[in-house]
Design brief:
By secondary structure, the chain is α+β, with helices and mostly antiparallel strands. It folds into two domains: 70 residues; 169 residues, 2-Layer Sandwich (Heat Shock Protein 90). It is 41% helix and 17% strand. The strands form three sheets. Strands 2-4-5-7-6 form a five-stranded mixed sheet. A two-stranded antiparallel sheet has the order 1-3. It has a two-stranded antiparallel sheet with strand order 8-9.
Length: 259
């Protein structure tokens, strides 16, 4: 079945599904909290059934993640104009929030986080950046072996950019497929078995970051995992960089390299 992102019927379905999915996610988080409280209270006497409960909750979280991500992708693909609300922010803080949220819902997975202590601020929409990092992380969960760690890094990429990298130890991506990953509707041949999706996620990631003056990319080779990244330009004060015609600036900051 081919879905038309411009269908009014599809818009109605997306609207109707958003509320129950949000509620289900909230109830799932509450159940996780209750399970942890019981385990803490009982300590060493906690029954083994709690392990099974935790596993069921984690699997439920994964399924909700897939459904919510697909709904978000369809919603963005259905928008003619994507709202970007940039503010001065730090990518390390945004990435840390995403990692901590995923750790709560995916307790069986290992996610390492590392950020430089002095990463420079950027002018970006934190919500949109979170969407992209979450998409990268969910893809890593989907394709990498469950027992292998995933790394999220925030680093300076030269003097003018800050980069977020999500690195997994999965099967990697064929070289011939990599130039097409960011195309709308594209899915790597042979990678779809057992993995649901519409082929919109990376297309939307690219769209959201490029709308903020940044870039996206991937470093991968078959059998050696994949590292998906995004970069955004750092901020500088108006006194440090003279205004040029056509430069779009925040009232207090402007972005290096953005035209």
């Amino acid at each position: 079945m081919t879905l038309d992102p411009n269908s009014s019927w599809l818009t109605l379905v997306m609207h109707e599904l958003r509320t129950p999915l949000t509620a289900a996610t909230g109830y799932l988080e509450l159940a996780h909290n209750m399970e942890r409280q019981v385990r803490t209270t009982l300590g060493a006497t906690a029954p083994s059934s709690l392990d099974h409960l935790e596993r069921c909750l984690s699997l439920s979280a994964q399924e909700l993640d897939v459904a919510t991500a697909m709904l978000a992708d369809l919603a963005i693909a259905n928008e003619e104009h994507i709202a970007i609300r940039p503010i001065p922010c730090k990518l390390s803080e945004i990435a840390r929030e995403v990692v901590e949220a995923r750790r709560v819902l995916m307790q069986t997975r290992i996610v390492h986080f590392h950020a430089q202590s002095n990463d420079l601020p950027v002018l970006a929409d934190p919500h949109r950046v979170k969407q992209v990092v979450t998409n990268y992380l969910l893809n890593a969960f989907k394709y990498a072996p469950a027992e292998r760690p995933i790394a999220v890094l925030v680093e300076q990429a030269g003097p003018q950019f800050v980069r977020i990298v999500v690195r997994d130890e999965g099967p990697g991506i064929p070289l011939e497929a990599q130039p097409h990953l960011w195309e709308k509707g594209y899915r790597v041949p042979g990678s779809t078995q057992g993995h649901e999706g519409l082929g919109l996620g990376l297309f939307i990631c690219c769209l959201l970051i490029e709308r903020q003056g940044g870039t996206v990319g991937v470093d991968s080779s078959p059998g050696h995992g994949a590292a998906f990244w995004l970069t955004l330009p750092v901020l500088q004060t108006p006194s440090e960089a003279p205004q040029e015609p056509g430069t779009r600036c925040h009232p207090e900051y402007c972005v290096k390299g953005r035209e």
